[in-house]
Amino acid sequence: MAQRDPYEVLGVPRDSSADEIKSAYRRLARKYHPDVNPGDQSAEEKFKEIGSAYSVLSDADKRAKFDRFGTTEDSPQDPFFGGQGAGFNDLFEMFFGGAAGGGRRQQRMGRDGGDIEIQLDLSLQDVLNGVQREVTIERLTECDACGGKGGEGGAPPVACQTCHGSGMVSQVRDTFIGRMQTSAPCTTCRGQGWTIKDPCKKCAGQGVAPEQSRVLITIPAGVENGNTLQIPGQGHDGMAGGSPGNLYAHLRVKRDKRFERDGQTLYAAVDATFAQAALGHSVSFEGVVEPHEVEIPAGTQPGTQIAIKNAGLPPLHGGRRGDLILQVNVVVPTKLNDTQVKLLQEFAEVSGEDAPKGESRGLLGGLFGKKK
Ligand SMILES: [Zn+2]
Ligand SMILES: [Zn+2]
């Protein structure tokens, strides 16, 4: 939408003072206000345009921006006078979600129940197999004395006498731009549109009362850290026919130091001695729930990855498990006895290497008595 020059709209020169702009705006707003021109579409358009122009020129930053760039990209988002030039009635719609003084929200008496949120800690085993958890939560549950109606003896809510069920009251005020109709939430019913005439003594008219409640939650296999389960209808009960809220369980999968997870794939490290890596061997690795025999082929290099099929985690909605990827960590011994040193030196010699001296252990270590 092309923005009209706000100076032109208000009919003021570019070097006008803030006061001059304000008085021009007041004069025009009074003239074109919809209450003064009922049913006049063009007056309403004009009124909106005036509001929009004033929102630019009354704001020093926006005015400066317009002076420099000939436009203010901010004005369409302005909550009070949008780019469309919202009038005062639109303003109330924005705040209260209905027409000013309107009756969109009074159809139903009573109240929906709120949601409850909890957190559940899970292990990788839980993720692998799925798990059931029984949790105890404090829920607002229907009051048995009034059957959730809120009134003594089960009397239901009645339409508020002050606002006749709309939840809003309107006032006509005289303002500097003329007579204006404004709306505000009804204070008698706090905007609900209904009241409880004779509140139930047990629940004080709330229709619900807190109660410890046990809920069995089934967590499917394959969930991820940060997933949220929705358990419909297990939140707080509503009152007077309102629907219950939901229970939301936020899942936190505890980190298992031995594994890194990437979706259904698990990564872990498996140790092999130098001899096992060189000669080949079968080593045992404890998976998430079951042991695995891992075949380490002769000549395995450090960092080699060995995949164990179907030893990872299942997908969320069932299916084949992912893989477990083991990275071989060749362990270099940190302590050697004399025999081991001797054998390794012989090994080096027959391999055609210069025999390593064994700086801090073995020969020199023996000479200087450093051995433990
Ligand atoms: Zn009650
Ligand atoms: Zn009311």
Describe the protein in words.
With 372 residues, the protein is α+β, with helices and mostly antiparallel strands. The chain folds into four domains: 6-86, Orthogonal Bundle (Helix Hairpins), CATH 1.10.287.110; 116-253, Urease metallochaperone UreE, N-terminal domain (HSP40/DNAj peptide-binding domain, Sandwich), CATH 2.60.260.20; 260-331, Urease metallochaperone UreE, N-terminal domain (HSP40/DNAj peptide-binding domain, Sandwich); 338-367. It is 23% helix and 26% strand. It has helices spanning 6-10, 18-32, 41-57, 60-69, 88-96, 124-129, 274-279, 338-350, 362-367, and strands at 116-122, 131-142, 158-159, 168-175, 178-185, 194-195, 208-219, 228-231, 247-253, 260-262, 265-273, 281-286, 291-296, 305-308, 324-331. It has a four-stranded mixed β-sheet. The longest helix is centred in the first third of the chain and has 17 residues, at 41-57. It is elongated, with a radius of gyration of 38 Å. The structure holds zinc ion (2 copies). Residues 143, 145-146, 200, 202-203, 207 line the site of one zinc ion (ZN). The site of one zinc ion has 8 residues, from loops.
